[in-house]
Amino acid sequence: PRHHQGYEYGISSWRKWCEKHNYKLIILDELLLPEEEMLITWQRWKVLDILEYNEVEFDQVLVVDADTLIHPDCPDFFQFTDGELSSVRGQGCHEFMGRGIRSYSRLFFDKDWSIKVFECFQTGFVILNKSHKEFFDKVFKFYEDNKQAIKNSYETIRTGSDIILLNCLRGEFNQEINYLPKQFSLEALFTKNLLKVSPQQWFEDNLDNLYNSGWIYQFNSIPSTPEKDRTYWMQRIYKELWEK
Q1: Mutual angle of helices 133-145 and 163-172, in 10-degree steps
Q2: Which H or E run includes 64?
Q3: Strand 125-128 vs strand 216-218: parallel, antiparallel, or unpaired?
């Protein structure tokens, strides 16, 4: 599908990084349930159950979006978690986050703010371990108890699927987050002028600033042109970093 284009470059970068650090890469490419029942963005949070069912031994696991690329020199982020649920603060659209938090908080919790915008973590980069199963069990019980209202909210609130509500549930269930530095999941690249999408942008078309701004790149919310869409950027950056 078109919305999957470019993923092969992200997956390849992660495979090479994992081989370098002696970690195992597991790709979630099969659904646990039809997406009419639960979108895959929710299903990924069954990762602890999936690993246990398949008898995979692990200390920590990173759940990361396929539309990301990792730099070959990225340090081992597992060393910075202190065994806590770990992610990076959201750096994207604050209107999107604020509108979503207020809407979900009013819909489900009879309040305006379950969590502050500046406390939101990125759901595209989350490190967890077996001690966090209780939190995710609560998340899925909430999902099952409110399934239809959650599915209806995608069209009415229009802030994606799991991103905002999972953050609200983190606030409601008092789940602590260990925030890693933003370089471990750099998002909103276009708004930071790290990608030259349009000739009207005054800076040169090179990626030096990108590579000096972060170790892991999230390819979300990038304006597409006929010449430069997400696949273009993922392919170009992958080749510059991993095939030079």
Answers
A1: 110
A2: strand 61-64
A3: unpaired
